[in-house]
Amino acid sequence: MADSSxxxxxxxxxxxxxxxxxxxxxxxxxxxxxxxxxxxxxAQAVSALILDGRIALHVRLPAERELAxxxxxxxxxxxxxxxxxxxxxxxxxxxxxxxxxxxxxxxRPNGLTRLLGAQDTAIDLARAAPxxxxxxxxxxxxxxxxxxxxxxxxxxxxxxxxxxxxxAVAERFTRRGLATVPEQILVTSGAQHALTLVLGLLCxxxxxxxxxxxxxxxxxxxxxxxxxxxxxxxxxDTGWDIxxxxxxxxxxxxxxxxxxxxxxxxxxxxxxxxxxxRLLRAAQRSGIWLVIDETLADLALDTPAPPxxxxxxxxxxxxxxxxxxxxxxxxxxxxxxxxxxxxxxxxTELAGQRVATDMGGSVLDQLLALTLLARTGELLPPRLExxxxxxxxxxxxxxxxxPQWTWQLPSGGLSLWVDLGEPIAAALAERAMDYGVRIESGxxxxxxxxxxxxxxxxxxxxxxxxxxxxxxxxxxxxADGPPPSSDTRRRHWVA
Length: 495
Hints:
Layout: E1 3-4, E2 18-19, H1 22-28, H2 38-51, E3 59-60, H3 64-71, H4 75-88, E4 91-94, E5 98-101, H5 110-113, E6 123-124, H6 134-151, H7 163-175, E7 185-188, H8 191-202, E8 208-213, H9 217-225, E9 229-236, E10 239-240, H10 242-252, E11 256-259, H11 273-286, E12 289-293, E13 321-326, H12 328-332, E14 338-341, H13 344-354, H14 363-374, H15 376-401, E15 415-419, H16 425-434, E16 437-438, E17 455-459, H17 464-479
Parallel strand pairs: 2-3, 6-16, 8-9, 8-11, 11-12, 12-13
Antiparallel strand pairs: 1-9, 4-5, 7-14, 9-10, 13-14, 15-17
Helix pairs in contact: 1-3, 2-4, 3-4, 6-14, 7-14, 8-9, 8-13, 10-11, 15-17, 16-17
């Protein structure tokens, strides 16, 4: 099991006076064997760590002598590394206080860049999020206009969420097999917001959190920023090893566990019912919180949509389960509407915490969400049918143009987790941009550095013709010469 510790400021230091230990930095840097010149490779690696958020901004880098000792290299090499970082804008020096991390003017952190649309004519395969039909949005806006006008005469603050939306989400859980009342629902600004609130309330810096490996990168980033220590359990093409999960919960006893059992992102696996029961029992024995991410649960393509994981628990077992959901994948991410289901008392505490950040969500978005949720039975089936067609188009194009790549066809979700057969994903992703395709290396979904470099997550959220063209371009990029092995390039440490 891997135990990766996020970077932490020295005890008692304020934001403006944070330092990075030499051993911490050394542990994240690549092996320099065969790398020439070494200082350029090290500077590139540190720059990548800063862009990926693994090294925070405005942090003091280790003293040159200390880092040279930790890396077993000359101090002159470290001096050259720092000089190059300053030259490129990734660091600056303060008289008498060392070298500090920075961001070059005009550069954006990778986490922000990944959420922005692809530039020019690039096909965007980095974001697994479908759009909303224009007419659907137009109709919904027309429908809610009178109701929105009624709210205009109120303050508009709803820290728990609009009462009618809470009721609708609760009824949705009940219909899926988990009896729920509105008091157990907190409406949030997306599932990521829900997770951030939970981590902020239930965890303290240094707490251990069990996560899957690979996992949803923005969730991993939220844990890193909360200064939590992740303990990973593997998810393979065939799913989870429930015995490893049970032993991890028993031996490590993390503060909470974050899992995606429904069409797991990125592998697409669906956890069997018997494993869900064992997971719940193990969590109950260990007394830990389970945070279950259900954002993909409704995207069942070849199997019935699974009931909530908490529905398999005994009545007492549900008190330690927090279920997170969202409309981003089933309807539209632009709404920024999510929710969590938890014991009513915990919902109240979380609502109190959310007041310090946003005081409540947009009334307009919540009314739209209420209208679209009511039409899910009408809107979701055609969306699922499009996903099946797009999944088939992607799989056929890959088999035709890049037959050496392999994958397991998922029974739901939004993407394929493709095995390239060799660790070239990061290099291929960089080269693909020159051919008009934006895609992420599998390392983006890893909890630890240097793994999943043989994987790509390829979403099937764009039209079939676009997917076929994207595969053709990637095949051309691959055929124009093998990308350099990741072992001779900078290693990616990503969210």
